[in-house]
Amino acid sequence: MPHRFPGAERTRLRDEQRMAIQPAGELIGRMSPRPDEICADLGSGTGYIAVPLARPTSKVIALDVQREMLEALLDHADGQENIEPVIADVARLPLADASVDRVVLVNVLHEVENAERMIDCVNKALKPGGRISVVDFPRRPTAMGPPVEERIEPDDAVGMFPGFRVVGRWELTEYYQIELKGA
Fold first, then answer.
1. Under CATH, domain 7-182 is a member of which superfamily?
2. Domain extent listing, the chain
3. What is the pTM of this model?
4. Residues of 56-91 as b/e, b for ≥16 C-beta within 10 angstroms?
5. Of 119, 153, 159, 164, which residue is the least packed, with the fewest Cβ within 10 Å?
6. pLDDT tens per residue across span 14-42
7. 118 touches 109 (CB < 8 A)
8. Is 29 helix (H, G, I), strand (E, B) or coil?
């Protein structure tokens, strides 16, 4: 069973190692977000992606199951009013049907216990032609990340979202990023 990142270690989500290995600006740059986008950042943690993603987009719904993560996110939000923190499990998303333009899963896909339910929720929440941004760790040792046996290979991540086509794919030394677009 996958493990959830422990809230007690939340400072690691914004430490120098992560900033060097997974620069938020580079991840967001590859997403190519539009100013009118409403994004749902699933498992947003302390807002490492949600906070900077809110700047070039209309709104970011930051969902995390751990209250302390969202409290830390608000501390880092610098008063940005277009970030909506929501306590929720990724397999039970409280999002209206066809309400978001992009779903973001940064270092989260490997933590999902009920992937089928989460994918169903994502499919319902996305508008037609919506995008999914996946960032995760390859199934080999890297400087950071979950146990290797819990990781998901890039091709397997793509296969989890039938009906979506790959519009961007980067396999870097420490992680991969895949941009998917729906019909």
1. Vaccinia Virus protein VP39 (3.40.50.150)
2. 7-182
3. 0.90
4. ebebbbbbbbbeebbebbbebbeeeeebebeebbbb
5. 159
6. 567 767 889 999 999 999 999 999 999 99
7. no
8. helix
